[in-house]
Amino acid sequence: MAEPHTRRILVRDGEDGNPAELVLSVRGACKRYGTREIFADINIDVTRGSVLTVVGPSGAGKTTLLRCIAGLLEPSAGEILLDGEPVREPPEKLAVVFQDYSRSLMPWMSVRANVELPLRGKGVGKKERRRRAHAALADVGLETSADLYPWQLSGGMQQRVAIARALAYGPEALLMDEPFASVDAQTRSDLEDLVLDLRDRLGITVVLVTHDIDEAVYLGDTVVVLGGRPTRVDKVVKVPFGRDRDQAGTKARPDFIDLRTRVLERIRQARD
Ligand SMILES: Nc1ncnc2c1ncn2[C@@H]1O[C@H](COP(=O)(O)OP(=O)(O)OP(=O)(O)O)[C@@H](O)[C@H]1O
Q: Containing H/E element for 250?
């Protein structure tokens, strides 16, 4: 699904230090509003096809950082690199999924029309729009819901539509800001597994901000813990569970429980 990329930058990643391809880099990023420094000297690397989760105390600047990565906000210092190129405006290769799916979908448009909307803006022809929308809806398990309207769908299904709309663009990376905070626990588990499934099937790279520590550890290949004042990267945790994860089994593992407890303690320390 991802379009061909321009530059390949290899780094050592994972427990065994295997080479992995760098997609996104945050280099010395800082954000100030007036004299207030929200975060300072943030450095993060995201490798292709990995899931990186970001956690930290409320108000630490997670959303602000994600918006900088998305090119929606300009860092006050430092830079964001996508495939080695500085991000100066929202790049086509990055798609953003926000928490509030109800406001991001047009209620008067069918599911298909909602998914096609950004493609229409991009000047993609009708036939190609249809094809991409159909493929993206199939990717999120909604191929039979294309003619329905958002208000006819559950919250979880609406968020799947928002994800399909992001996928239809053929992005290299999905940036997700608390994407499942407004759905019930069972739907949230299903959507978490959808993210892992999309990563495995499409090779898509994911950066996901969450308040939910279990979600961060369950989904992440890497968990970045933010903390301090101004906010900095407090800890980078490599998650050692491999790709084969399942909700009941993985979350019951003693090393999962140990890891989520350590991350939680770290956030508490950062907050206090
Ligand atoms: N446009 C702005 N002008 C001034 N301050 C801002 C602006 N946008 C955000 N902030 C401040 O930046 C800080 C970080 O906000 P942000 O929403 O990024 O934090 P967060 O970690 O995502 O919070 P939460 O976990 O509660 O969602 C907050 O104190 C917020 O008030």
A: helix 247-252
* pTM for the full predicted model: 0.92
Query: How far apart are the C-alpha atoms of 141 and 153, rounded to whole Å?
Result: 13
Tokens standing for residue 229 = 């004042």
SS3 content of the chain, % helix, strand, coil (to 5): 40, 25, 35
Domain boundaries, the chain: 105-170
Residue nearest atom 2 in ligand 1 by C-alpha distance: 33
Tokens, residue 119: 């493609």
Asked whether 233 and 224 are in contact (CB, 8 A), the reply is yes
Q: Give Cα separations from 239 to 21, 47, 132, 178, 265 (angstroms).
A: 18, 14, 33, 20, 16
**96-109 per-position pLDDT tens digit:** 998 877 778 999 99
The per-residue pLDDT for range 82-134, each reduced to its tens digit, is: 999 999 999 989 999 988 777 789 999 999 999 999 998 888 999 999 999 99
Ligand 1, residues at Cβ distance < 6 Å: 33, 38, 56, 58-64, 211
ipTM > 0.85?
yes
Residue 271: CB atoms within 10 Å: 12
Mutation to probe ligand 1, out of 62, 64, 232 (largest number of atoms < 8 A from CB) = 64
The confidence band for 3, taking pLDDT boundaries of 50, 70 and 90, is very low
- 3-class secondary-structure state, position 140: coil
Judging by beta carbons within 10 Å of its beta carbon (0-12, 13-18, 19+), is residue 193 exposed, middle or buried?
A: middle
**Do 93 and 171 touch, CB atoms closer than 8 A?**
yes
User: Considering only CA atoms, which of 221, 213, 224, 222 is closest in space to residue 251?
Assistant: 213
